[in-house]
Structures are given as C-alpha cells and as structure tokens.
Amino acid sequence: MSNISTRAGLAIDTNLAKFLESKVLAPLGRDVDAFWTGFADLLATYAPRNKQLLEKRESLQAQIDSWHRQHRGKPHDQADYRQFLEEIGYLVPEPGDFTIGTRNVDPEIATMAGPQLVVPILNARFLLNAANARWGSLYDAFYGTDALPNAPEAEQAGYCPVRGAAVIAAGREFLDKAVPLKSGSWADLGDPSGGIAIADESQYVGQTGKGRLFKSNGLHIEVIFDADSPIGSTDKAGIADIILESALTTIADCEDSVAAVDAEDKLLAYTNWLGVIRGDLEESFEKGGATLTRKLAGNKDYTGADGSAHSLPGRSLMFVRNVGHLMTNPAIHLPDGSEIPEGIMDAVFTSAISTFDVEGKTRYGNSANGSIYIVKPKMHGPEECAFTNDLFDAVEDLLGLPRHTIKVGVMDEERRTSANLGACIHAVKDRIVFINTGFLDRTGDEIHTSMQAGPMIRKAEMKNSAWLSAYEARNVGIGLRHGLSGKAQIGKGMWAAPDLMGQMMVEKIGHLNAGANTAWVPSPTAATLHALHYHQKDVFEVQKGLGDVPGLEPLLSIPLADGVNWSEEEVREELDNNAQGLLGYVVRWIDAGVGCSKVPDINDVGLMEDRATLRISSQHMANWLLHGVCSEDQVMDSLKRMAAKVDAQNAGDPTYEKMEDNWDGVAFKAACDLVFKGVEQPSGYTEPLLHQWRLVKKAG
After folding, report:
1. Based on the domain organization, do 529 and 672 belong to the same domain?
2. How would you label 186-197 residue by residue, b for 16+ Cβ within 10 Å and e otherwise?
3. 644 CB contacts (<8 Å, ≥6 apart)?
4. Which residues are known binding-site members?
5. What residues form the annotated binding site for acetyl-CoA?
6. Residue 2 — pLDDT band, cuts 50, 70, 90?
7. pLDDT at residue 29 above 90?
8. Mind telling me which InterPro entries this protein's record contains (predicted)?
C-alpha cells in the first residue's frame, strides 16, 4: 500500500481508515481509538484461528488424495470410504435432536415465501435496482419477456395493442386464481367504484391511491385502477397495471459476483453498503439522451379496510454476503506484516455500517426487528461455522450490540458442509436464518475433493447424479428437521438465463415443490415472474408433506466415469464447452473488473455468470487432464479456439481487449492457470489466481 496509516499496530489504507472513522464510527458515536484497539485485539485472536482452519482443510484434502491414490484402479468400497472419512474427522457425529433458537427474524425471512435477488455490491445502479425490486409490474414482466408462450410478438415499435391484450388477459387469469371473485371473472369486471366482491374478503388489505391491495399466500398484489392512463383507458374496469410483491429479500454480494482485490475495491463496496443502509444511495446515468438518477424507493402507504393508515416496505430486506475464510486483502496488514483475512474485515466493517439500522439512524430502515443479516459462503464443516459464530460474538461485543443481533446465512456449497449439515446448523443455531444449495460451487468442490479418485462424468450429467439429488433433498430435509420452517429461509439456486423466462416459469416451480421458501433469480423482472409461483403454491404446506431425508450414502457417492471411453469428438466437445464458459467470464473479470454479467455461452445463450462458473469448469478440465482423458495440447487447442469465439461474441464492445494472438495477455494467462494449476488450488477455488492476475492488470 502506498498510502497507509497506522491504527493500533495495524497498517491500513488511509482512505479506508478515514471512511470508517468519519462516515461510520463518528456518526454512530463510537470511540475511534477504542474501536481500533478492540479490532486489533479481535484480529490477534481470530486471524490465527482462521489460518488453522485453512490448514485443517488442506490436511483433510491431502489425506483424501492419498486414500484415493492408494485405491485407484480398485472397486470403490463405499463402507470403507465412509469409515475412512470418519476416522480423519471429515465426517463428525450428528448433534442429535435440537431446534434452532433464532429470534427477532423479520417476516420476509421467517414467515413469508418469495424470490431472492443476489446483486454485485460494487455496482450502485444494479444494487438500487435490486433493493427496489420489492414491487414489480406484472404487465411489464409479461410484455417484455417470453414468459407468455402464446403471446403474439409486437407488431410495431412502441406499444403494441395486440401483444398488450394478451398480457392483460394473462393478468386477469392470474387474478382469477390468486384473488377469485364471488362470481364471474376479473375479465368481466366493470367500474369498480362500487367495490369489488371477492370470494374471500380477508384477502382485501386496503387502498393505495389509485390501487386496491390484496393478499395471497402471504404476498401482496396491488391492482392499479387508472382510467386516464394509456392502458387503463382501454380497459373497461380501468385497470392500468398489476403490481406484485416480488423480491422479498436481496443479497448485496461482496463475494462471488464482484472483482474486489484491494483497498480501492473494498472502499467502494463498503460505501455502497453504507448508502443502502442509510437510505441515501443514488446513481445517475445516461439513457436516451437524458440523465436519470436512481434512488431507493419509499414505502407503500395505504388505507386499511377500517380506515386506518398503514405502510408496507418499498424495498427488499437486505442481506450482505461477506467473503469466505480463504482470502486475504492488502487493504489492511497485521502487525506481523501479513494481509488481513478478508472475511474478518467484512464481518467488522459491514456490521459496523449495519449498526446504523439497528440504532434507527437511517432514512427508511432495513430490519424492523433490529437484526443484521450476513450470508457466509464457502464454509467447510461445523468447525468453520462455529468459528463464524464466535467471530460474530466478538464483532457484537466490539460494536456494543446485543448478542445474536448478527444473523447468519450458511451456504451449503461445500461437500464437508453438506455431509455434516446438521452439525453446521447446530454450531450457529441461535443466529441462523438461511441455508441454500448451489449446483456450480458444490459440483466444483465435489470434483476437487475426489480429484485423485479418477475421471469425472461429463458436466451436464452431474445434474442427474445420485450425490446431487441427495444433496438437494438433504438440505431441505435437515433444515426442516431442525426447525427452520417459520424461522429461516431454505433456499435454492439461481436461474441463470435471464432471457429465457418462459422456460423459468415451467421449471422453477420445482424449487417450491422441493420445499424451498426462497430461490435466486437473475433480475427484478425475473423476481416478479417467479413471484407467481409463490401464489400457486403454499410452500409451508409443501414442507409439511415432504418425505424422509436421504442418508449419507448417496451423498458420498463419487460421480466417477467408470468404464466410459469417450470419443475424441466427445472430449473436444466437453473441453470446448468448459473453455468457452471459462474464458467468457475470465476476460471480463480480469480486464474489466466485472464480477457478474450476462455472458454468452457456447450456444450464444446469455447466462448470468459469477465465479462459481469458473470453479466447476476449471476443475472439470483439470480432472480430465490429470487422469489422461485429454492432453495439455488438446486443452490448449480448445482454449485458443474458444478465445476466438469469445472475442467474436464481444466484438461490439469498444473497450474489449482481444485474446486471440495475444496469448501473453493477462486474461488468457489467468484462464490457463485456472486449468493447468487447478489441481493444486485450495478446494479448487479460483479466487487466488483471479486476484493475483487482476492485481497485475490493475498495476498496468
């Protein structure tokens, strides 16, 4: 760091120190010197523990690698394998019967079911869009996507009445199912001034200006009546739009969807989080030749059926996702000269900022119950969950917050966590508010953990593997067993294709059928469409009817390609698919510092990609290379051919730097390292190499 200050023996970037002191600690009335002394003491305790946990990961992996090498070529003995995992402490005893004790959880998390957004915290405009996605226009969502399979294409520029009529008809069909009338259809409704006779009067909530507010499966529906509007004027009931309560919660992400590698990046992350929490975040941008300014939405005021005044939140309830235990950051150096564990820095800084909300020093407020919500990713097993629990205790003490103010979301995306999920939940049982599953990261860890066992099945086949089915079912079942229903979210992963909303509407209801009371979507529009699923299904009723939890055996089955002999064409096809996805994402991460964006896949379908994409693709290629399924020359051939394809896909970007014939370029070298050094990367993570090469790029 060229511009550093010293605080309690810590060398900290001066701008970051000033930000925390002037923008956070002083307005909160905290003693600055006492904070830095306490922070240094916290680091003296928890930085060594963090390091020990990472060493434990490496030790376990080395023992697993050795076991697989010794048994390579022999029939896999599942009982022997499980006994070995128990002996080395990879598997721990189940904690027995218990129920989580989390308190002061907001209803958006505990008792409501609905969509969840994840948004890169470095992009203020995206962050504002996501925070404001609590309410969304169903008409806009239908009109602007392929969600209605039989709706005619727009026949003209601007508004197309023919397509609009199909949208309006679909909106009426939705109302007939979600808020049925006493008789007839919403399609036949005339002038509503005399009232609207609905079958269940308890569904009527009140009136909002030009809207009537209803409730279905715990979610609000606002029907806007405006006969003077362009749409309402053509409607016999004067309905101008149907507004749905959409993204109940949003995760502001400091981790997989951002490229944050130094003090400059972390300062932007914390500044944006402060703006969201205080309620004064703004972002101006050019659109259609005009300058627009985006702000946080206010609350939705309404008059109840009894004439009293009420208000509903106008914004998503916000989580913040801290980074995991692995990475360090040069923003702060410890007294011994080492970099600060980034997850500890995030825990302290994001919680300090969130204290504005706890103490009521904000424009709008986030948690009505005085809680701070932190999602913690990439934890391996109950020891690491216990470490996070202790760390959050220490952060609460440092900031003078009541015990368990800081709640935690545990991402079940590492194999050691999946196999010990009950014990992981037990380790944070008084602050847990969220568990979820994620195919990409979890598959990356599945491959890396058993890297030495043999070649893995093709990536697409993973979705039908025994371990994955068990993983998805066990996550929900174990969460329910320990009392998460009605107290916490049980979530499912991202729908990655924002342009394929019609397909999402067919498939994503499967997450509700599996018992998830939230699931990730890639955009505010997708949140509005996915909200329709929660009107169709009462997830809490679904949870009551779920069957037995699968045992450990299928979860521990290794997806090896036993006896498979792929053709050269099949090998090339798999390598090309992995290489194209890897390069398409890496070039944006390294060259542009963009951690999440819509990246065209090998078939030119735009997918919302983050770092998990790299983990599965690079680990899969490294596995096949290790076991001789392919050669280095074949891998390099795919990488070079796919670099040309990615260049062509980005031809319209004037700032894009081509990779083809620039094989010494930083982005291409980073992609090569991710594959050729993939076996040796800790847990198969991509962060160490990405951060290394991004810092090279930023240094010019």
Report:
1. no
2. beebeeeeeebe
3. 659, 660
4. 118, 125-126, 257, 294, 321, 413, 438-441, 522
5. 118, 125-126, 257, 294, 522
6. low
7. yes
8. Malate_synth_C_sf, Malate_synth_sf, Malate_synthase_TIM, Malate_synthG, MS_C, MS_N, MS_N_TIM-barrel_dom, MSG_insertion
Residue 655 belongs to what domain range? 568-698
Residues 153 and 259 in one domain: no
Lookup: tokens for 300:
């939705």
In the set 106, 241, 445, 610, the catalytic residue is: 610
Instruction: Evaluate whether residue 609 is within a structural domain.
Output: yes
The one catalytic residue among 30, 163, 321, 416: 321
Supply the pTM of this predicted model.
0.97
Cα 653 to Cα 668: distance, rounded to the nearest angstrom? 18
What DSSP letter does each residue of 345-370 carry, written as one string?
Answer: HHHHHHHHHHHHHHTT-SSS-S-TTS
Told to judge if 321 belongs to the known catalytic residues of this protein, a careful annotator would answer yes
For residue 546, the domain's CATH number is 3.20.20.360
> What residues are designated binding site for glyoxylate?
321, 413, 438-441
Task: Tell me how far apart the 2 most distant CA atoms of the chain are, in Å.
Answer: 80
* pLDDT tens, residue by residue, 574-629: 999 999 999 999 999 999 999 998 999 999 999 999 999 999 999 999 999 999 99
Decide if 485 contacts 540 (C-beta within 8 A). Answer: yes
Q: What's the token pair of residue 378?
A: 């990439």
Q: What is the CATH number of the domain that holds 588?
A: 1.20.1220.12
pLDDT in tens, 626-655: 999 999 999 999 999 999 999 999 999 999
Catalytic residue flag (residue 572): no
